[in-house]
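User: Can you write out an input/output pair for a complex, sequences first and structure second?

Assistant: Here is one pair. Inputs:
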Amino acid sequence: MLLVIGFLSWLFISMARRYKKNPGTAPTGAQKLFEPIILFIQDEVAKPFLGAKYLPYMPLLLAIFFFILGLNLFGQIPFFGGANVTGNLAVTLVLAIIVFIVVNLKGNRHYWEHILWMPGIPAAVKTIITPIEILGIFIKPVTLMLRLFANITAGHIVIIIFVSLIFIFGKAGENPGAAWGASIGSVLLSLFMMAIELLVAFIQAYVFTLLTASYIGAATEKAHHADHKAEHH
Amino acid sequence: MTGSIVAIGMGLAAIGAGIGVGTIGGKALEAIARQPEAIGDIRSNMILTAALVEGAALIAILLAYLVA
């Protein structure tokens, strides 16, 4: 994990330094790869959910996206010795705790009002909804944590299964011929599964970032002042 | 005995995921057929919704895995 942190920090700091040195010029080198991705997160993830005040949260969203993406991709490398970090519940738990802290610290009055005493519905229903909403404060980051962990770990488990097919077919050493035959099929299946895992790495990083932006946007949005009693959302 | 019930549970979760993501994909294809110029928006929303549905199914599989 420190390797990924060091690699990403070196990459982004050197890019930022190059931007500061020649302002207003066309991007070169690694900037050409990362600038569209950063703009994608800004335009598709941050602006739709956070509205006008998206700029303070951009560093958080970008950090979450590239950190999770880097960790996912490094975890795919076999025999890398301890690189499968997002497959560890503790790491995803910390990421979820960060989201939990940011969302609840930045929640404004209307966010807490909606949770504790949701306006616009009869009082009997409010007593049912309030415990559910309070549970929701904790369950939303927990689902973030479990989603990322389960997706990455499921991919790794399937690869382990495909590799151990070789040993099963060879009956653990008794039948080398069948083991060689099974290894061909197993390698092909493993390649296919690794391709899917690359896709899952990108998608999970994107979904984590998107949901973080969505929760922060829900916590910091202004109230809808127009006829609150007649029509609620 | 617990092992086979766990396996049945995982299979049910996989069925749920299959039905869910299949419905999402089918509706997305219908929407693309109706309005081909919105294909970018439809594709991103489809991937997002599919990830959410698969998250639920994978949490079920994960918890079943933890039993056995």
